[in-house]
Structure formats: C-alpha cells, structure tokens
Design goal:
Length: 286
C-alpha cells in the first residue's frame, strides 16, 4: 500500500513539474522572471524528491534496509543542496513579487535576464556550500558503523543526532546553520510581503491582480518552511522518530507533490499555456 501511494505521488510530482517546465519554455507569454523562477523551482523539486523517494521505493520492496556510508553521505548532501535551493528560490520569488507590485514601471529593468540568472546561480552555490558543511560536520562527528537512522532517508538532522559524543557541538551547529540559512530567507520573504501588503492596501483596485500568485507562493512557503524548520529544531530538543518521520514526509514528498497544483490551479495564464501546449491554437477565455 505504501509503495503504491509513494510511487503514484512521485510520478505525479515528476509529471506536474515537467509540465510546468515545458509550458514555460514553450510559451512566449510566460517568458517573464516570475515564470522563469517557477520553472527553476520545478526542476529543483524534481531533483529534491528524487534524492529520497526512489531509494525509499526500492527499500519497501527489499527485505534489507541497509545503505552504505558513501550512499548515505551522498543522499544527505544532495538532499541538503536541493532543500536549501528550494528555500532560496522561494525567497527570490518573493522578491520578484515585491518588485512587480511595488515597482511595476521598473520591473523589467530591475529583474533583467542577467540578474535573474545571477540570483539562481547565487542560490545554487549557497546551497552547495550548506551541503558541504553538513557533510563535513557529519564526517567529523559521526561514526557510520552499524548505525540505525530513525527516518526513511538520511535526514541531515537525524544523521547528526547519531553523534553521542558531541551532543553539545551538534546542537550548536544545528542552530548556527538554521540561523544562517533559515532565518535570512524567512526574513526576506516577510519583508517582501510586508511591502507588498502595504502597497496593495494603498491601491485596493490592484489587489485582485496579484492575489492568485501571492497566495500560491505563500501557501508553498508556509508548508515548506513550517515543516522543514520544525523537523530541524525538533530534532535538537527532542527525540520523537514518529513525529520527525511525518514532518519529513511533508516537506520532502508532499510539498513537491502539491507545488504544481498550487501554482497552476488559480493561474489563468498558466492554464492558457497548458491549453496551447495540449492543443496548439486553443485558448481559455477569461
């Protein structure tokens, strides 16, 4: 039953995010910074869910639950990179909405193609640095001989918890990394939406125009950051494998699964793009 559930969610996630990438790349109407960042987020979600679910599906069919040290470190590093990339891209998308709503006349000048690519590259290299930090810390503190991880994948927070000799250092490292990589994106998103709400309240007639895209983005932000930071901090203060496993499923499987639905169901431009992709020349009336 679990195998069928996670397999269907994984395939739906791949299909939904691939459709977003295909629609954005093929439709000139969607060649804007917002949809460029959305297509990169979809690609990142494909990589993010692919670091954990395929291995989990294999383990569900296999009597053995073992994973090699190299395999665990690789999975942990890739998971951290793509997870951090997700957070950075959500922050960049919040900045995109801030510029589009608060500075509409300068939007094409501020978010020019060079800046858009630079923001994506900065997000990627920042994420790679965090992945390397986690792997270095795990190698320094953890002995990988016959360890049992209370999760369905090599969760960085769970791997670091296996270090019994360095619990204080482990806790300090978690809080420092969460502070550096967690709070700046959250602060950036909150600041962007503070400015957006202030701007929309001054011009009430413009509120409906951006309600769908901002609402979709906020839904994904709350789901991703709420469960992700919850798992990270909870593992530092308590040891509840069941609670951590449920939260891990939420932000590793459910969030990438829901993203295509959240971003497309209330977006008329994207619906029209999918219609043209399915039937060239077709359109959806307003």
């Amino acid at each position: 039953m679990l195998f069928g559930l996670f397999l269907s969610m994984y395939l739906t996630t791949l299909l939904g995010n691939l459709l977003i990438i295909l629609a954005v790349s093929s439709d000139p109407h969607l060649h804007t910074p917002m949809y460029f960042f959305l297509s990169v987020l979809s690609l990142d979600d494909i990589c993010f869910i692919s670091t954990t679910v395929p291995k989990m599906l294999v383990k569900l069919l296999s009597p053995s639950r073992a994973i090699s040290c190299a395999g665990c470190l690789t999975q942990m590093c890739l998971f951290t990179i793509f997870g951090c990339m997700d957070a950075m891209l959500l922050t960049v998308m919040a900045y995109d909405r801030f510029v589009a709503i608060c500075h509409p006349l300068n939007y094409p000048l501020i978010l020019n193609p060079r800046l858009c690519v630079s923001l994506v590259l900065l997000s990627f290299f920042t994420s790679v640095l965090e992945g390397q930090l986690h792997m270095w810390m795990a190698l320094q503190m953890t002995d990988f001989k016959e360890l049992e991880i209370p999760s369905f994948f090599c969760d960085p927070s769970q791997v670091l918890d296996l270090s019994c000799k360095h619990t204080f250092t482990n806790g300090i490292f978690k809080y420092v990394v969460a502070t550096i990589y967690g709070f700046p994106p959250i602060f950036g998103i909150l600041f962007s939406y503070y400015k957006i709400i202030s701007s929309v309240l001054r011009i009430p007639s413009s509120g409906g125009k951006y309600k769908a895209t901002c609402g979709s983005h906020l839904s994904v932000v709350c789901l991703f950051f709420g469960t992700g930071l919850g798992v990270y901090f909870a593992s530092a203060v308590s040891h509840s494998p069941q609670g951590s496993a449920v939260s891990s499923v939420m932000y590793t499987v459910v969030t990438p699964f829901l993203n295509p639905f959240i971003y497309s169901l209330r977006n008329r431009e994207f619906k029209r793009a999918l219609s043209r992709l399915y039937k060239p020349g077709a359109d959806i009336r307003r």
